[in-house]
Amino acid sequence: MKFDMGSTTLAQLGKSTVGSSDDLGALIQQLVAAAQPLEGKFNGAGRAAFDAFKDNSDEITAALNGSLSAILGGQGGMNESFNTGMQEQADVVNQHMGAANFDAARFGAR
Fold first, then answer.
1. DSSP 8-state code for residue 44
2. Is residue 56 one of the residues assigned to a domain?
């Protein structure tokens, strides 16, 4: 199995997730706004159910935003770890190259 990821993949993923978060929040707001004309049209159990719907939509929005924030935090941490690993790898390679005797590998060297 081969895993190949570019150095900007996680940063781009983070930008997409932020966009998705904005889109999701807007869709939930549209759902609540679409139901707004029904407010006050119910009495008794119908009104209680409608009020519960509105209360739950706020909770759902908050929960989804919290979850997406956690995902963004995880993506940011992965991006930082990936970039740190890339830098450490480059540092180790440069260190070993500095200690290598490339003249010994030349077959025609005098």
1. T
2. yes
Handedness of CA 73, 78, 81, 82 (dihedral sign): negative
Contact 57, 28 (CB under 8 A): yes
Reported as a single tens digit per residue, the pLDDT across 23-69 is 777 888 888 888 888 888 888 998 888 888 788 887 888 888 888 88
Taking CA atoms, 11 is separated from 8, 52, 64, 75, 85, in Å, by: 5, 38, 21, 8, 15
Give the pLDDT confidence of 81-103 residue by residue, as tens digits: 888 988 999 999 999 888 887 77
The whole domain housing 63 covers 43-94
The number of distinct structural domains making up the chain is 1
